[in-house]
Write a structure and sequence with these properties.
70% of the residues lie in helices and 0% in strands. By secondary structure, the protein is mainly α. It has one domain. The two termini are 18 Å apart. This is Sporulation initiation factor Spo0A C terminal. Pfam families: Spo0A_C. Keywords: Initiation factor, Protein biosynthesis.
Amino acid sequence: MSMRNIYRKIAKEHGITASEVKREMQGAIDYVYNKIDKSESEKIMQESIPRKGGIPTTEEFIKSLAHKIKR
């Protein structure tokens, strides 16, 4: 399933747009990566997410977690 279809499915279930889903997800990711008082387990988990920039995109985050779940 493509990321676009994932956003659409979630949006439909919650009565919002796909762009709102993506924006809210990115906001949550940004929040946890910018937290100052992170636990060691949060730091380890965040460092394990492959990304091109300082904070992963929603796509990078979901793909990484999906890969970890498949293992």
